Amino acid sequence: MSNKEVKAALKSARDAIRNKEYKEALKHCKAVLKQEKNNYNAWVFIGLAAAELEQPDQAKGAYKKAIELEPNQLLAWQGLANLYEKPNQTDVKGDLADVYQKLLELYESGDKQKWCDVCNKLVELYHQEKKYLEVAETWQKLIRIKQEEGAEKAELHQLWKKMIQFLKDSTRSQDNKTGQLLLTAFEHALKSADTVPGEDHQNLYKDFIQCLSKFPHEIARLEKACHDMMALYPTMSYPLEVLCLHFVHTGTLSEKALHCFSRLLEMDASSGPGIICFGIKCLKEKKYKEAVKSLTEGLQKANQCPAAWHYLAEAQMKIHKHRDAVLSCNQALEALGTAEGPNLRWKNLALQLKAEALLKIADANAAEEAVKALEQIVGASSDPVVSAIRGQAYLNKGLMDQASKISQELLSSHPDLAESHALEGFIHYSQNNYEQAERSFLNAIERKAGIAEYHQYLGLTYWFMSDETKKDKGKALTQFLKAAKLDSYLGSAFCYLGNYYRDIAGDKSRARGCYKKAFELDETDEESGTAAVNLSVELGDMDTALSILNEVTGKASPGTAKWAWLHRGLYYLRTGQPSEAVADLQAALRADPKDSNCWESLGEAYLNRGSYSTALKSFRKASELNPGLVYSIYRAAALEQILGKYENAIATYQQILKKTENYVPALKG
After folding, report:
1. CA–CA distance, 425 with 441 (Å, rounded to integer)
2. What is the spatial distance between Cα 186 and Cα 189, in angstroms, rounded to a whole number?
3. What is the residue-averaged pLDDT of the chain?
4. Cα distance between residue 362 and residue 320, in whole Å
5. What's the confidence (pLDDT) of residue 348?
6. Residue 504 gets which letter from DSSP?
7. Among 98, 274, 325, 514, which lies 20 to 30 A Cα-Cα from 479?
8. What Pfam families does the record tag this protein with (predicted)?
9. What is the pLDDT of residues 135-151, one digit of tens each?
């Protein structure tokens, strides 16, 4: 085949392709290749025809052969790109990216429009593959070429905005180079905006600041962006809110941070971040109840701030709302998700605080949960304070050997740590080794004197050690007073003070005041509530007794607060108000249906009300639960007599007399 015939065959192949006669085209190309096996155009036409005949492997092979022959010729690269772009081509994205890169290289010195078209396709491909760095670098090159061509400011602005759009999800990958390119894109987009100030510019600034807040190492840039935005948009609270939450997250309470907090609240008193910051300020100023109130309110408006949840848990711990603190720690952990970088510090703090709160709840299940929380702390094994908390968790679970092992290791490795000695004290105290416990708690207090719990346990140690230390004002009483002074929310310290004034000092009035304070601090403390009511009755102050009982019963849900219902029911019984007594005693029995004394009192109330049949049932129930209640059996017999059931009454009287021969009421009956 002569050179002329080769050209004619290639022309025929081209015409056949144009006419969609692809098999015909293949014949012409194969004829050419028999004569010239390295004919570039013939291989390109085979690639084209095979691709249209759904023979991708043959097409790919043909294009690659052509590229091998002429690596810097466009046709084969374009054909290969078209082949890879077909929807039936899978797993070729990496190859397609390589083809696009070669096409960019070939177009760069020539057709700029085609270069831009291929560049767009390559960036889209990288974006699908989440290759954000490649997206950023390629798009930046496109913008540079547009700048060289003298593109308008408005076009460049749109290109920078598109780059931001492409990279907005890249902040999750935490790749620093991509992050820097994204921030650069924001800065260029802001500079190239047409209307400043304006709504689009304002929204772009918000997005820029939000993006900056995700980069922990861009603090200076974040602060500058917030201040710049405030200068342009002085009535907008958003930059101040971001700045405040940034200060919250970094744990900073500098003058600058406090100024920022107050400025935000002046601008918008209902701002969630502003209220959160005010709550943290209250916490630092030891105004714990105000802190809980403000942080709770602020978090209802800005609930994705893990640091704020942690501060709320801290404030709740200070006022001994331990179950609430556990819930707040859980919220912090949920907001943190899979934490890394600076967030890891908050995660560790939340897990440690959660464990401490669970230990205050003081049951085996809570202790088990505390151990699980401690296991999730990164680097926990090297933190002696965390080890001490773990030791306490084992102690609460009743695992004495594990607790003792941790205690010994801590005393050996960290003898100057208060927590090491405190753990040893808790172990000795739980084993009634009071002299050793005294020594341990004194050592702990020597190293850290401001912990109320250490003083309280030292006071309890003296209380149970001997009558002498219990009565010695300088021992138990002094420690309870110190505990109450150090922690004015520690209800149990006031309860123990009440015990001292009632049982040792014989000062009923002061004891009543302490019990009342203890109960106000912890409404679940039945011992203090009961003691406050009983002492009020003994002191003839029924108003105080009733106000306590009314408050508890008013808040009580069904089946709870038995002690309060019982006390008030007995009061009504004594004061001739049987209907009220019946209602309260029934409520007490809902909380504890097996209390025989309560059934007996209920029988008495029904009897006083004239409800004889119901009274009979109540007395019978009391004697079933406790056959030793002779009074209930006698009352049942007397009611049977009143109701005309004489044979039953006689049998019941005889039953009493068998047990108690000289029981006069039965003999009379």
Report:
1. 6
2. 5
3. 90
4. 13
5. 93
6. I
7. 325
8. TPR_16, TPR_19, TPR_6
9. 999 999 999 988 988 88
Question: Can you tell me which residue has the tokens 């049977």?
Answer: 640
Please say whether the beta carbons of 275 and 299 come within 8 A: no
Shortest CA distance to 52 belongs to which of 90, 25, 15, 92? 25
Would you state the torsion angle of the CA atoms of residues 427, 431, 432, 433, taken in this order, to the nearest 10 degrees?
A: -60
Structure tokens at 215: 């980069």
Alpha-carbon dihedral sign for residues 213, 215, 219, 225: negative
Eight-class DSSP state of 556:
P
632 close to 622: Cβ distance less than 8 angstroms: yes
Q: Which residues contact 571 (CB under 8 A, 6 or more apart)?
A: 537, 542, 545, 546, 549
CA–CA dist 419, 381 (Å, integer):
15
DSSP 198: -
Burial of 564 (0-12, 13-18, 19+ CB in 10 A): buried
d(C-alpha 19, C-alpha 174), whole Å = 53
CA 399, 402, 408, 413 dihedral sign is: negative
Convert the pLDDT of each residue in 209-253 to its tens digit: 999 888 878 888 998 999 999 999 988 989 988 888 888 888 777
Tell me the one-letter amino acid at 538: E
Tens of pLDDT, residue by residue over 78-94, are 999 999 998 877 788 88
Quote the distance between the C-alpha of residue 227 and its chain's center. 31
Q: Percentage helix, strand, coil, to 5, in the chain? A: 80, 0, 20
pLDDT of residue 338: 77
